[in-house]
Every structure is written in structure tokens, then in C-alpha cells.
Amino acid sequence: MPANRSSWVSRGIAAAVALPLLALAACSYGSEKKTDSSSKENVAAGAAKIDGLDTVKIGYFGNLTHATALVGRQEGLFQKALGGTKAEYATFNAGPSEIEALNSGSIDIGWIGPSPSINGYTKSQGKSLRIIGGSASGGVKLVVNPKKITSLKDVKGKKIATPQLGNTQDVAFLNWIADQGWKVDAQSGKGDVSVVRTDNKITPDAYKSGSIDGAWVPEPTASKLVAEGGKVLLDESTLWPDKKFVITNIIVSQKFLKEHPKVVEAVLKGSVETNKWINANPDQAKAAANAQLKVDSGKELPASVLDPAWNSIQITDDPLAATLNTEAEHAVKAGLLEKPDLSGIYDLTLLNKVLAAAGESTVDDAGLGVK
Fold it and tell me: In Å, how far are 138, 167, 238, 274, 348 from 316, measured between CA atoms?
């Protein structure tokens, strides 16, 4: 590993980060929902703009681990909190492209996983982003072909997919492999287990074709594999204290946070209200998330996939900061990351203000907050 690499970017991830923004715009940005006059996304007549700002640009992934963003958009809860400041949205397929969009100003705030958050922060020497809130825990499973793998020890010698070299699930799987006493070269994926980096959209087809024997993946990909005959061999939550670990958090451009803290506070208010509504109305929230997935991708999830996937994800305002630090340690152990300085990656001031105002418990930054 080159000595000057300060984050767990591989050649593949570096290439993804370097994608031209125009190309990204063609495939990822601008999934603005076409709305009619009654849409919950519309700005209410006469509503005042926060700080006089016309719009705030919000990014997220079109998957269930980003349920807060899906439901908050579908139900108009972000727009309600923002008043006359219009919420505009963009969807992404991978963390590097969302970080690039944040750095370029194409989005201001985003829902994203822990690995790209750490990667973006360390690559910029702590200048590009802050994590300002939590969103989800769990929703990651090792699903295998039960005809080939019947126990954890049977994973040795098999071909197991992860979404991307150095992504959150890849790091977790490499760490689990090491804990079994097995050896794998992190960069090539070759060793006692063959780690096959495969886009989540392709993984179910790869499973059906037999080119992989299983996958360590987030929802809903895990439940899609189960629907194809796969078996859940391990739920990652069982490897963590209290079965909780960060899978999605909220990031903001430091520039935007400094210039528009009231707008950021409003988005966080919308997030907290959305999470409260999701946990109080799980069935309605599940339907709302699926409806937004259909808007974003043109296809909703069948109940056989949606129901188990939804049930495995915990929605939370807590960013579970201690687990982010542990995930970074796992990446260091795998050889994908030089020991990072994560001090200052969190700024939970506005979130705790919103939580306190709502009568909720405040959350902790595990000593990694802005001093």
C-alpha cells in the first residue's frame, strides 16, 4: 500500500471519485420528482424562505437503508420543515459520486454510508464535510447458496460478493474473514475466500448464474438474494454491541453549514420528525419508502423483498459515532486505510438542539466532534 494513501480508496474507488460531474449528472443527478399542485413536495403558498435561501440540494441513495430520506421526501416532511426554501433532490448509486457532488456544490446535504464519509473527510484533510446526524443501523447480511454453504466454516474457499472495494460492507467482510483466521489480499480479493466486488444491481443475477456463492450486502439486495433461494447465514448486527452499527448518516458541506446553519437545522428537524413518524407508523412508512423508490427507479419492491428488508433496519437519530470509529479501525486492520485522524468529523450541535427542543435524548460524538 502506498505510504501517501490517507484513506481506503483503491484504484477502483479513485476512478469512481474522478468521474466527471457531467457524466454523473447524466446517470445520478436530477431525479427531481415531477409534482402536481397537490404534491407534498411543493412549497406552501406564502411560506417564508429560511435565511432568504431559495433552495437546498439534498442527496441520497435509492435504497431502504436511506429510509429517512425516502420517507421524508415522499411525505413532504423536509419541505414542511424548510418552509419557503425549496428542497431539491438528487439520487446516487455510490458513495464516491455523492462525495464528489458535495465537494463541487452540486448538493449541500446528503444521506450516505460511513466508509465514504470517512474517505471524503480524510482525503480533504478534514475540510470537506461534517457528519451532522444519524439515520439508520443494521440492514446488512451474509446471504449464501444453501446448496454450497451450510455453515460459517464453509465460506472458506467460496466466492462471496461485496458491493465495492473499500466500501462499508467490503470492510466489514474483510474484518470478519480476518477474525476467522483466514487470509485474503484486500486489494485483489484473492485468498482463503474469493471476495468478488460486484455492484448491488448485478449481484442477484450473479447469484442466479452461479458466478458467486453468496454476498455480504445491504438491504434490499440481501432480501432479493433470499427471494432467489439464498439463505441468511449471518446478520452483521449480531457482531456489534447492542446489535447496533451505523449504516447511514447525514453529512453536510462545511461551507454550507457555516453559511446556512438555520437551513441545516431545518433539514435536521425534518429528519428527526421523519424518524419519529417512521417508528410510530412502520407500515405506512414502509409503503411511503417503496413509493419513493418507484419514483426514483421506476420500480417498487415486491412484498417478498420489502417486508424482510424493512424489518432488519433500525431507524435512529443517533449517528452511533463509536461504531464509525470501529469501522475505521477495521479498514486499517484490513490494510485499506492508514490510521486516520477523525477528530472533528462530527458536529452534532444542531441535531442536539433539535432533539432537545423535541423533548428527545441528545446524542454523543464519541470524542470525534468539533472542538
Answer: 11, 21, 18, 10, 14
What's the mean pLDDT when you consider all of the chain?
Answer: 89
- Let me know: does 271 contact 72? Beta carbons within 8 Å: yes
Q: State the DSSP string of 44-56.
A: PTTPPPGGG--EE
pLDDT of 22 > 80? The answer is no
- Amino acid, res. 76: G
Letter for the amino acid at 286? K
Give the C-alpha distances (Å, rounded to integers) separating 347 from 133, 172, 181, 261.
8, 25, 37, 12
Sign of the torsion formed by the C-alpha atoms of 193, 199, 204 and 209? negative
Q: Angle of helix 114-123 relative to helix 95-104, nearest 10 degrees?
A: 40
Cα–Cα distance, 324 to 343 (Å, whole number)? 12
How many residues make up the chain in this entry? 371
Cα gap 250→123, rounded to integer Å: 18
Q: H helices of 185-302, where?
A: 203-209, 221-227, 254-259, 261-280, 282-297
Say which range, 23-27, 31-35, 102-106, 345-349, has the weakest mean pLDDT. Answer: 23-27
Using pLDDT thresholds of 50, 70 and 90, give the confidence band for residue 321. Answer: very high
For 311, half-sphere exposure in the C-beta direction (CA atoms, 13 angstrom radius) is 8
pTM: predicted TM-score of the whole model, two decimal places: 0.86
Contacts with 7 (C-beta within 8 Å, 6 or more apart), sequence order: 118, 119, 122, 123, 337, 338, 340
What the block records as the C-alpha cell of 332 is: 486499517
Going by pLDDT thresholds of 50, 70 and 90, the confidence category of residue 94 is confident
- The SS3 call for residue 4 is coil
Annotate 320-341 with b (16+ C-beta within 10 A) or e (fewer).
bbbbbbbbbebbeebebbbebe
